[in-house]
Protein 1
Amino acid sequence: MTSYAMRHDSSLLRNDDPQPFEVVNGDSPSPVVLVCEHAGRAIPSDLEHLGLAPQIMDMHIAYDIGAGNVARLVADALDAPLVLQPYSRLVIDCNRPVEAADAIPETSDGVVVPGNRNLSQDSRKRRVEAIFEPFHRTISDLIEKSHRTTLIAIHSFTRQFSGLQRLWDVGFAFRADRPTAEFLANQLRHRDPSLVIGMNEPYAIDASDWSIPAHGEGRQLAHSLIEIRNDHLRDAAGHRRWANLLSGAIEELASRKAPS
């Protein structure tokens, strides 16, 4: 599994800050492209931790717990290209339209984010140009450089949210491509009949999403956003289990989408 990242000039990021994206297996000709928009929890040093206590960055509001680890293992198993976002969704959410209020949230699941309060348009623009735009340019480049047929986004969700218990083990989100989501769900049911699987649960693809509409629907790729409940992803054994389940399902999907 190969990995690389490129430095982009920016008025926001310093030389000692992480790059605005990471690519794994960038030279792979695989028909599958994987993305993980909420893999990381880095904060540019200029933003002074967004005014948050360190323990906040261990919470689901900062990143999708375990999703990056699963995505890397799936990329390794499939030898497929993967684009990961190292920066926290609290800095800028790379799966939201940049004009959306929650693209740079002032509060998240009841937690106030002081460094996001009353931002100027220039401050918002710096984050878009430094992090959001290079991340999505990289996804576009990977899709366009080879014959890609399939786009899969890997996320995780928390069991309890806004006082509600969300008991699905995994969910498949879709809007324009229900068949792909249903195919993947059926593959997982075959591999583990005990799984509780949600269709468009706990989230559905809608106007608040960015990656699947922009890159999947826009190019008419087979696509799905996969949400794994994050209490399954608290250790390496959980990461391996879910990576094995997903890589088998995605490999079967890709084989059916391959040109004859």
Protein 2
Amino acid sequence: MTLEQLRIFVTVAELLNMRATAERLHLSQPAVSAAIAALEERHATRLFHRIGRGLELNEAGRAFLPAARSVLAKAAEAVQVLDDLSGLVRGELRIAASQTVATYWLPGFLTRFAARYPSVRLDLRVSNTAQAAIAVMDGEADLGFVEGRIDKAFSLHKQPVGGDDFRLYAAPGHPLAGHPVEREELLRTHWVLREEGSGTRDHLAHCLKSIFQIELTDLDIRLVLPSNEAVLEGVASGGLISAVSDLAAASRVRAGLVEALDCRLEKRTFHMLRHRERPLSSAAQALVDML
């Protein structure tokens, strides 16, 4: 069993697609298939169900996945130790970030970091807040940047690093536009929301409960979509309202496609996440210092 086989197995387990794994790891598809086949044959254990052209982890694969991730995380820590002992900021910096942070806030910092430390390879994976936190906890990311609340992740250290304004948006001419929005109007209108686990959805739930004593289950949710851009497209199409970051909505506001409603919501804080027990590499510490 090699580290390369483990790396390929973990990526296939995440993507459940040989071709997508090959593209992510910059390998050929036959090389990916051969690595999985060799791993299974060497240990006489199937790790995936082959269903048509699709894959899914079987019971053995699900049991093996945490151990494989742990070994890769330990190997990455060993590489970091050698890099740090050399006194140079180099190697790989793995970052997991939720959508708003990754799209509108973090790129400027990463651009300056890349210019200052050209020997560091940056690996940014964009997901929602819950997925980014799990990546840091599991050792798949060195740092996480999220806009959502992380309440029960005791293994994570959470540090404020920025923030944004957060508002309700609708298409121009929507019945709620042009006047202060009342609680009963929020209950009667139709909503499009982000998916569960997203920081945007979580912050909306917090604001509605703390300001209006409204639960998400009280709303008439007509549509759930997996990105801010998709949500704003749903809003711009008319009839639905949603809550997103001002950063996400700015270009559509300038184009006259959506407008902010007169409804006070709380500002939102961006947090940086790191594991309490894993030391930061020189590269990770350099980004922290830059922030």
Protein 3
Amino acid sequence: MDTKRALERHLSRVRGFDEPRVELEQYPTPAGIAAHLVHIADLRGDLGGTVLDLGTGTGMLALGVALRSPERVIGLDADPAAIETARENARRVDPPRDPDWVLGDGGRPGLCPAGATVLMNPPFGAQRGRRGADRRFLASALDVADVVYSIHNAGSRGFVESFAADRGWRMTHAYGLAFDLDRQFEFHERERTTIEAECYRLVRE
């Protein structure tokens, strides 16, 4: 895939959740944001080996990475319906090499090849009973990877930077993001809302 625009065009084929689960904070990652982050990671040489997407959901980030032909892509999610959606989206996008779709908890991913890159949009922990969900995912990513790209609520930089530093990691970049999300749950009052977020690039010291 030569350009970011071409990447976004391919990822626009990814469909969202048929029945999103609010308790799992299943909000889709927009194609434009996924294409932007994958393009940045590729330019920095972070996509050459194994890339892991924790909490892959619809498979958007994993499929974006797969279009750049890394050695291996793993998309992991705890929801069987999400894994099936990701598989269907892989057929729509048709990357050169399909990701390996794995059913499992992104907060406890298990074994992962050494030197992997994690690229993820974890739950923000905004729902009742899900407080700290982003912390669990971030801890897992720092345990299994050498480079991490992780999306969080805007204003999380201080926490993420400190959390990473305590584990021997360093933040190299922070990217501001704006998620335009369509109404998908009953408690949403607007047809479309914009969520301000940030993606942080972290490297092991």
Protein 4
Amino acid sequence: MDTLLVTGAGNGIGRATLMHFHGAGWRVIGLDLDDAALEELREALPEETALLIACDVGKEDAVATAFETIGDWLGEDALHCLVNNSGIADPYCGPLEDLALEKWQGWIDASLTAAFLVSRSAIPLLRRAAETGDSASIANISSTRAVMSEPESFAYAAAKGGIDALTHAMAVTLGPNIRVNAIRPGWIETGPWQKSAERTHPDHRAVDREQHPVGRIGEPQDIARAVEYLHTAGFVTGQHLNVDGGMTVKMIYEH
């Protein structure tokens, strides 16, 4: 049975990815700061095939402790796919001249530093899969904001741009045994995939849907399917896949 590890697994894209792969017969490991969200997943998934750990993946000691538990749970088994999904969802930080270093560092650590720390600990487990001829892959969740910006999103954009650069550097170094790609989500509606206390079902305007060439706003399952594709795409590494309904290639003018 193949095994997936997802950071930021409690809500949104991470939660949908975890559930998608578990539904496909995988064992899953989820890391998240939100233990209430993880507890809902613990109630929904059997202990034999799901390990949910409360962990601040931007902190070195916390990641080391989590991987001790992961190592015990896996035993001699391999990790096949890592999804570095954690991050601060809200991209807006206010005027640059008012942005405190501590807040800036929060965005960087939650996404970029976390991807480094978790990947560093996961690589030996991923190599086990490669040694047996199985596919071993990492999907780093970036953002379309790595290549295009809205006002006052400096730290978020920098973190995701760093994820893009980390991706191709890792792909070159870790190949051929471990393939590494990035996924750049566009507008993904995560409301239905939040923990129950914060779950929402927004009714989007027609104009919101129409600005996407595919005619709808994205769903977290779209990202889960992209992770699945990249894990099986044996000749794809070091790439940055926009999953945005075509929004970033459509010119939009104000009228």
